[in-house]
């Protein structure tokens, strides 16, 4: 299914599990499952769930999810209507208190980031198919970033 583009609207937190089940079914298709590892597919589902729940909890408004499949893996993009609220990784927090999702995204992704577009924030991650070694994979840890403030 390389080249496929899948997208969903996420109206509320309870929709995340339904969309995750739909994404799981799509990546279980033989054309995807034979071109990726089970660990890579599990990583995609986990990163989707983390970014989707963050978008609903900390973003809000119209939340959209987009997955683009490629031979190398997937591009996952979650967007919301809170461009003024950047994703901020937990720092010096006890992991039992939660908030470690962005660190998990960093560990499972080849690359990740966020950007503002007019009226929207996009948080994205590129995830590998698991079939080819990725240099430096898993060594990234997100740093807290100050948002860029546009100057008039």
From TrEMBL:
<dbReference type="GO" id="GO:0005524">
    <property type="term" value="F:ATP binding"/>
</dbReference>
<keyword id="KW-0723">Serine/threonine-protein kinase</keyword>
<dbReference type="InterPro" id="IPR003594">
    <property type="entry name" value="HATPase_dom"/>
</dbReference>
<protein>
    <submittedName>
        <fullName>ATP-binding protein</fullName>
    </submittedName>
</protein>
<keyword id="KW-0067">ATP-binding</keyword>
<keyword id="KW-0547">Nucleotide-binding</keyword>
<keyword id="KW-0418">Kinase</keyword>
<dbReference type="Pfam" id="PF13581">
    <property type="entry name" value="HATPase_c_2"/>
</dbReference>
<dbReference type="InterPro" id="IPR050267">
    <property type="entry name" value="Anti-sigma-factor_SerPK"/>
</dbReference>
<keyword id="KW-0808">Transferase</keyword>
<dbReference type="InterPro" id="IPR036890">
    <property type="entry name" value="HATPase_C_sf"/>
</dbReference>
<feature type="domain" description="Histidine kinase/HSP90-like ATPase">
    <location>
        <begin position="34"/>
        <end position="126"/>
    </location>
</feature>
<feature type="region of interest" description="Disordered">
    <location>
        <begin position="132"/>
        <end position="152"/>
    </location>
</feature>
